Amino acid sequence: xxxxxxxxxxxxxxxxxxxxxxxxxxxTLVGALEVLHSCPRLLIELKSNPRDRRSxxxxxxxxxxxxxxxxxxxxxLQDRILILSFDPDVLAQAHDLAPEYRxxxxxxxGSPSCLxxxxxxxxxxxxxxxxxxxKLTAQWAQWAxxxxxxxxxxxCNNSPQVQKALTLGADAIISDRPMWLASFLAxxxx
Length: 190
Description:
Layout: H1 5-8, H2 29-35, E1 42-45, H3 50-55, H4 57-69, E2 81-85, H5 88-97, E3 102-107, H6 120-125, E4 128-132, H7 138-146, E5 150-154, H8 159-167, E6 172-173, H9 178-189
């Protein structure tokens, strides 16, 4: 958030991953929507931190993302896009601007009691809750089920984590190793 997009464009976005990707330019949301339009599901996370909230940057970012998603050409993707954030205020703002999308509250908290002060309206507007695998418990699974929310979990990168997610009834598993996860699921639950 400290740099203008023109400054970001001058950075090498691929070399950190592999020299093969050296010189890769940053991918914009519009570019991602064009490239990933055929994906079964696209997760867009709106980041938020105290400094960017105070400056109004988070509000402007949310407005910009929603205005892009509301363009006529992206309406066919509406049922496949999930908007995620750790910041419930961001999700409330986005929902006010575009109630037709699905909203997911990310959490790294150890129990759903951290959500007790959230307005009921926000909870009602959620489609899912996304809990870090290290914090995912039966209590979280029950909390989501009681509110008819889908249960998602991140970041499942090994067999015990995936087995825990499946045992607790996760509807979606997010991994840094998607090809490994797909292979693991095909072998064990194919």
